[in-house]
Design goal:
Elements: E1 4-5, H1 6-12, H2 19-27, E2 31-33, E3 36-37, E4 43-44, E5 49-54, E6 57-63, H3 73-76, E7 80-82, H4 84-103, H5 113-124
Antiparallel strand pairs: 1-4, 2-3, 2-5, 5-6, 6-7
Helix pairs in contact: 1-2
Length: about 130
């Protein structure tokens, strides 16, 4: 297999949980291929450089292999190589998230049954 659809490859490489989310990210312009905005049906080939934005961060990767089948995470990581700048940015962002957790105060006690009901009601919008 020399090429595969962009949304299918992003799903197989585990950047998105579903192929529909991968396609939606392409439509919103969160995926670029070799500097150009990528549509879901764009073909991905080995050697392409992709910039992928998802909920966990921004990745700049080089495609090493193409696959249309979603497999284990260990196999998915062999499909691409992340650039050093992207890896450093991701690690820096993870450290910032960890530092921000130190500033959030812990509650004094566990929520009571009444508190839990209020939380559930608030989250459900009712």
């Amino acid at each position: 297999m020399s090429s595969v659809r962009m949304d299918k490859w992003l799903w197989a490489a585990r950047f998105f949980k579903t192929r529909a989310l991968a396609g939606r990210a392409c439509e919103l312009g969160r995926v670029t291929s070799n500097g150009l905005r990528a549509k879901p049906a764009r073909e991905v080939r080995a050697g392409d450089w992709l910039r992928v934005e998802n909920e966990s961060g921004v990745y700049e990767i080089e495609v090493l292999e193409v696959s249309a089948m979603r497999g284990p995470a260990a196999v998915a990581q062999t499909l691409y190589r992340e650039s050093e700048a992207s890896r450093e940015a991701w690690l820096r962002l993870a450290e910032e998230r960890k530092a921000m957790q130190e500033f959030t105060p812990l509650p004094d006690r566990r929520p009571s049954k009444r508190d839990r009901r209020r939380i559930i009601r608030f989250r459900s919008g009712g």
